[in-house]
Design a protein that fits this description.
Mean pLDDT of chain B: 93
Number of helices of chain B: 3
Structural class of chain B: alpha+beta
Strand content of chain A: 5-15%
Order of helices and strands of chain A: HHEHHHEHEHEEHEEEEEHHEEHEEEH
Oligomer: heterodimer
CATH topology of the largest domain in chain A: Aspartate Aminotransferase, domain 2
CATH topology of chain B: OB fold (Dihydrolipoamide Acetyltransferase, E2P)
CATH architecture of chain B: Beta Barrel
CATH superfamily of chain B: RNA polymerase II/Efflux pump adaptor protein, barrel-sandwich hybrid domain
Mean pLDDT of chain A: 93
Number of domains of chain B: 1
Strand order of the largest sheet of chain B: 1-2-3-9-8-5
Helix content of chain A: 25-40%
Strand content of chain B: 25-35%
Radius of gyration of chain A: 25 Å
Radius of gyration of chain B: 13 Å
Largest interface: A-B, 8 and 9 residues
CATH superfamily of the largest domain in chain A: Type I PLP-dependent aspartate aminotransferase-like (Major domain)
Order of helices and strands of chain B: EEEHEEEEEHEH
Largest sheet of chain B: 6 strands, antiparallel
Low-confidence stretches of chain A: none
Number of strands of chain A: 15
């Protein structure tokens, strides 16, 4: 169908139909001083004149250099890992880079095959039967998992979801913003303030009807939850289990499919640790996997492998009856795209590292955190807050306000961690620190020395 | 022309019903399966669930589309045809043998509002144009 713009007559009759004089009148609600006057080209208040590209480049360069390159011990959901140079060299090749958005049936076979490989890798990391081609980010993947659990749990019919406070605060906020207007309640489950985990002994025998329990793994404090007991408890009460995971950690840890007797039902999380650099909060991507029985409730695109007329293998978008272009108002997926480019990088990253490589990265990160924790807690005035197994993050308690300590460390070009003061005021001067495989002995020692100096 | 057995009752939304006492067996018609094409998945209601006449209670998914199945009558689900989970194509092959679920009717007088074979044939014929 050719694109035909509206004629002046069309426009006039549409304006008449709605009783408006001119197109400009449609924008009346926007205050005049915020609207660009096309006819007179009056500059907008507070918006500077345009700049030549060369000046913009210089300005941005100056601004960027203010960021510096601090030694990073901050995690809290975004993690610094070594990304082999080949990852983005290959990802940004024209064949991938210019064709990365598979909105359409016309998506190239190469793109589809890559997504299929990605799904296979995710399914094998999580132990789940199926993976989709990714979602927007970790926080929205939790929201989608919640919506999915409410749809899928036909036995419970409850719209109540138990979400531990050990789940990333941003994820809880995002999920709540997305699901609250659909009548879904996210009910907070408090944690053991001494251990930084959900104490199975605190779980009640009569939790009431709930559609699902969310289990973060590792949790926001880096601590490993008692996943087996939690999973079985949820299933005993007719609820599904939503695992929120760091996929990198699964290179080392037990997969959600193996939790408890029946395993988790839905796995979501943030894919950034797998080959995506930290960049002001994004673009990142969300992962989502589930058991076979729930596949028709899963949102997002799914790529399948099939054969063509000649019996040669090929790849195609599959199970599209879930999606809005077919299922309309009852679609279980209203997400018609995915984070294709990030997934491309991740797939190449995982292919280069292999299962063994991922495991080594995870193990080295864990070892570095252990070493960091030992060095830091040797300082008078610094203690290890939670004495529980954790992955590559841990919480330390300081005898000085975290904001002061972080500011002092910043002067030594150290990003010292994430202050928990705002999200978890009950923990006092608590600091979430992270050490990935990117840190060497000298880095860890350097941090300890600078922190020591602050407490002297 | 599709097959419309004389002994069954029908809805405009292409469900068929056969009655035995106060039990109604429900499926989709030959015409419906023909329009939808090859079935790939059938989502059945839960045993024990109650529906009002006209409620959507099942989903038939074909290679072309996913369509709701509406309960032709009010009642409680007594039994579902689990065999369709592994063989949804049975609905294409034998639409009148491949029932979806059985209802315990709560109001048998609703049967009088249903279409007979002749009326349904008219609906199906109009639909095909």
């Amino acid at each position: 169908m050719p694109f035909v713009p509206h004629t002046e007559d069309d426009v006039r009759s549409m304006l008449e139909a709605i009783g408006v004089e001119s197109i400009d009148d449609l924008f009346d609600e926007i205050p005049k001083n915020l609207r660009y006057d096309l006819a007179n080209e009056t500059p907008l208040e507070g918006v500077p004149e345009g700049m030549p590209e060369s000046d913009v480049a210089r300005l941005m360069h100056d601004r960027a250099s203010q960021n510096g390159a601090p030694l990073c011990f901050m995690g809290a959901g975004a993690y610094e890992h070594h990304i082999p140079a080949a990852v983005w060299e290959i990802t940004t090749r024209g064949e991938f880079y210019s064709a990365y958005t598979p909105y359409q049936a016309e998506a190239s076979q190469g793109t589809l095959q890559l997504l299929y490989e990605f799904q296979t890798m995710m399914a094998s990391l999580t132990g789940m039967d199926v993976s989709n081609g990714s979602l927007y980010d970790g926080a929205s993947s939790l929201a989608e998992a919640v919506l999915m659990a409410v749809r899928a749990n036909r036995k419970s019919k409850s719209k109540r979801i138990l979400v531990p406070r050990t789940t990333h605060p941003h994820y809880r906020k995002t999920a709540n913003a997305i699901v609250k207007n659909q009548g879904i309640t996210l009910e907070e489950l408090d944690y053991d303030h001494q251990g930084g985990f959900i104490d199975p002994a605190s779980l009640t025998d009569e939790p009431g009807d709930f559609a699902a329990l969310v289990i973060p793994y590792p949790n926001f404090f880096g601590v490993l939850e008692e996943v087996d007991v939690l999973t079985d408890w949820a299933h005993q009460h007719g609820a599904l289990v939503i695992a929120v995971v760091n996929p990198l950690a699964l290179g080392l840890l037990k997969s959600p499919a193996e939790w408890g007797v029946k395993g988790a039902d839905i796995v979501c999380g943030e894919g950034q640790p797998l080959g995506v650099p930290m960049a002001s909060g994004g673009p990142y991507y969300g992962i989502m996997c589930c058991k076979q029985a729930l596949v028709r409730q899963m949102p997002g695109r799914i790529v399948g492998r099939t054969v063509d007329l000649d019996g040669k293998s090929g790849y195609t978008l599959t199970l599209q009856a879930r999606e809005q272009h077919i299922r309309r108002s009852k679609a279980t997926s209203n997400i018609c795209t995915n984070q294709g480019l990030m997934v491309t990088a991740s797939t190449i990253h995982m292919a280069l590292l292999g299962a063994e490589g991922l495991k080594r990265v995870a193990a080295q990160s864990h070892a570095n955190k252990q070493q960091l924790l030992e060095k830091l807690t040797a300082i008078n005035g610094v203690t290890n807050l939670f004495n529980r197994p954790s992955f590559h993050e841990a919480v330390i308690q300081l005898e000085l306000p975290t904001s002061d300590v972080l500011a002092s460390l910043a002067q030594s070009n150290i990003l010292g961690g994430y202050s928990l003061a705002e999200d978890y005021p009950e923990l006092g001067n608590a600091l979430l620190v992270c050490a990935t495989e990117t840190k060497n002995d000298a880095d860890l020692e350097h941090y300890a020395e600078k922190l020591q100096a602050i407490f002297n | 022309m599709s097959n419309v057995p004389a002994e069954l009752k029908y809805t405009k939304s292409h469900e068929w019903v056969s009655v035995d006492g106060d039990t109604a067996t429900v499926g989709i018609t030959d015409h419906a399966q023909d329009l939808l094409g090859d079935m790939v998945f059938i989502e059945l209601p839960d045993v024990g669930a109650s529906f009002e006449k006209g409620d959507d209670c099942a989903v038939v998914e074909s290679v072309k589309a996913a369509s709701d199945v509406y309960s032709p009558l009010s009642g409680e689900v007594l039994e579902v045809n689990d065999a369709l989970a592994d063989a949804p194509e049975a609905v294409n092959n034998e639409p009148y043998a491949s029932w979806l679920f059985k209802l315990k009717m709560s109001d048998a007088s609703q049967l009088d509002e249903m279409l007979d074979a002749a009326s349904y044939s008219g609906v199906a014929a109009d639909d095909s144009h």
